Amino acid sequence: xxxxxxxxxxxxxxxxxxxxxxxxxxxxxxxxxxxxxxxxxxxxxxxxxxxxxxxxxxxxxxxxxxxxxxxxxxxxxxxxxxxxxxxxxxxxxxxxxxxxxxxxxxxxxxxxxxxxxxxxxxxxxxxxxxxxxxxxxxxxxxxxxxxxxxxxxxxxxxxxxxxxxxxxxxxxxxxxxxxxxxxxxxxxxxxxxxxxxxxxxxxxxxxxxxxxxxxxxxxxxxxxxxxxxxxxxxxxxxxxxxxxxxxxxxxxxxxxxxxxxxxxxxxxxxxxxxxxxxxxxxxxxxxxxxxxxxxxxxxxxxxxxxxxxxxxxxxxxxxxxxxxxxxxxxxxxxxxxxxxxxxxxxxxxxxxxxxxxxxxxxxxxxxxxxxxxxxxxxxxxxxxxxxxxxxxxxxxxxxxxxxxxxxxxxxxxxxxxxxxxxxxxxxxxxxxxxxxxxxxxxxxxxxxxxxxxxxxxxxxxxxxxxxxxxxxxxxxxxxxxxxxxxxxxxxxxxxxxxxxxxxxxxxxxxxxxxxxxxxxxxxxxxxxxxxxxxxxxxxxxxxxxxxxxxxxxxxxxxxxxxxxxxxxxxxxx
Length: 573
Description:
With 573 residues, this protein is of the alpha/beta class. The chain is 32% helix and 20% strand. Strands 1, 2, 3, 4, 5, 17, 22, 23 and 24 form a 9-stranded mixed beta sheet that branches. A 6-stranded parallel beta sheet has the order 9-10-11-12-13-16. Strand 10 (195-200), helix 8 and strand 11 (236-241) form a beta-alpha-beta unit. Helix 7 packs parallel to helix 8 (219-232) and helix 8 packs parallel to helix 9 (246-260). The two termini are 16 Å apart.
């Protein structure tokens, strides 16, 4: 019996994070950890009636890009509104430490281009009270948040710090460069870095159009960095590859893992050009694990979908000459111009001009949808604007134009550009079920004006266990384990992700029947009134971090027990 528990959660239906069947029990919490699971006779200082509610461990989101937000905000929304109690940042090789004062703008431009976080927001929000990675970690450790955060060492920042302009322009590193990067990487692990991240995709560019500094980093460079980090303690190498060079880069990354004994984690998605390549990739991962390698695939919970609109970063007509002439105008003024019949006729008659923007695709209206309310991320192909227009005897451009003008110019179009090559999510389900995969890629702190995927954790529960109509579902125990215990273990956080005595008291109390995602909307709540896409979520009765209720009925309580997690965490006893 637990004497004087701080909090007791009564009578909930528990998915404990192991993947085992649901069961009903009480949970006693004392001093920030779970003290008892079963029939708790002691009365808590605070009690939550969880009868008829689903009780889960807090979700661990390993791919979030909150590097900027954690420096200006203590509330790590929108992830903290989606049941996430630990968020990992420093993904894809981009971040803000280490950094010399002369390179502040360079790293901001890289984050702006890669992750669509506007430069004015970053310039106004980041205080730059550090230079080295250990200094950055020390500065973060003095801050309090509504969830825990963990950091990885970003390769682009490290490369530019050591190599300067040579690093930024992607010159090959020298043995001396590699030694310097390795030394700093080892220091980062001692300071609490959970891993090291890099990117080799052509889609990752600065806001001025330059490729990411890490695009062609040599195998010797990666081996030196990963090896030095893993020598200092368990450290994950997280990376993103480009489909065009996957056949070269994946074997190289596996060689790096084999030489350094470093666990690796990377994004696996389905793309339209090679819709079954993901299966080959997962087979290669599983073969590598039989050789003793630790490899984890990060899988998106639904299509990685672009949202297009007049209020957003991109829209289907942004390269049309007549639209470009008014693109600089405020939304209200643009809307008036776009409603004019002559402007509509001009834009619809024009051909898009060329662009090298990696996230602007020449519109394919057979894969462009109205998202709807509630938002539907698995619509049949006949719902796309192309088939709908043909049925109505119209051009799809007309439907797209009118849809964006709806809701006072705030209408959005949805383009699933990854994980939807076959017009359904069957491949995504197969990827999620692979034993070497975990959910990832929510990018909660990024893509402010084009992607709204921080709701992945909620979508995993609503769509995959309850609402899916176009294929097989997944079980609640499976989904909960995947995004709590499996994700925690993948980055060395052994103290969380389970509802069991001795573990960190990070817990969600969920009204499962009422759990619901609203359509994305634009909010102007970043520094300098910066814009970002957010989704309202209903159904989280309470989210608890280290035994403290941080969200209640979908609203923050103001409590901030979250902190920086330094390095691998042992299970609490």
